[in-house]
Amino acid sequence: MKRRDFIQKTAATSALLGLGGLSLSSFKSVNTKHLTVLHTNDVHSYIDPFPANHPKNPNMGGVARRAALIESIRKENPNVLLLDAGDIFQGTPYFNYYGGELEFKLMSMMQYDLATIGNHDFDNGIDGLYAQLPHASFEFVSANYDFKNTIMNGHVKPYKILDKDGIKVGIFGLGVGLDGLVDKKNYKETVYLDPLTVAQDMSRILKQEKKCDLVICLSHLGYKYKDEPDKICDTKLAMLTKDIDLIIGGHTHTFLDKPTVLKNVVGQDVLVNQVGCYGINLGRIDFYFDDDTSLISKGKSIII
User: Fold this and answer.
1) What residues pair up with 191 in beta bridges, in sequence order?
2) What is the pTM of this model?
């Protein structure tokens, strides 16, 4: 069966299968490899859960709950990737006091694998971001921020290839345009490159040259812009490229219960997911690879 047929059929059933319902192992065959991708975005320094009397999110979120949930999922499946789509900084007094040190230390304790850079991660300036890097045991990917004339040069990679149980996963990052969104003095000589052109190049390198089984874009472009239909966003990126299997998004604080499935330029399915903000949800997408590298997927947003 073709790869896109696997994704289409599985995505169609995802709305019917809650995490407490049919076991994910029901999809397994004898030789199937299982990869779980967990992800966050726009956590914005929310370390504590919301208070019990909060009008919208009572008792939700919090790093302790997220860490416990991640640990339980890792016990279920050791092949886990933990990713973040940017805007780690700015939003609570923890950032004002610690400048991002606490956020990076906690993410390191939870064993994040990779993150991309959001616009608010420049809020203490590029020097402030650089100063916190020693507290991060994970790496950063951003392919369309050119840092060569800044202090961040060499500390951010365009992409990273990770191996999980023989599954070759290529991950690249994209950031939103900084001009008019971030004070120039905060990002200094960082050069913004066209994300669509960069994505086409990165996905080609990872899928065709590096022969990755799965290509993931960690995006801080935003899910969709109703008032700016021509602005590049995750949904447009999915439809205008090929060789990307999953776009994990941020920036627009969009809460999706499950991934959006879109067709790329050659008619194959692309998953686009984003889990809101403030650490309220943890994204989970399970991928299964059979012997001929056909891909099966199932996604769900988990309330923390």
Assistant:
1) 146
2) 0.89
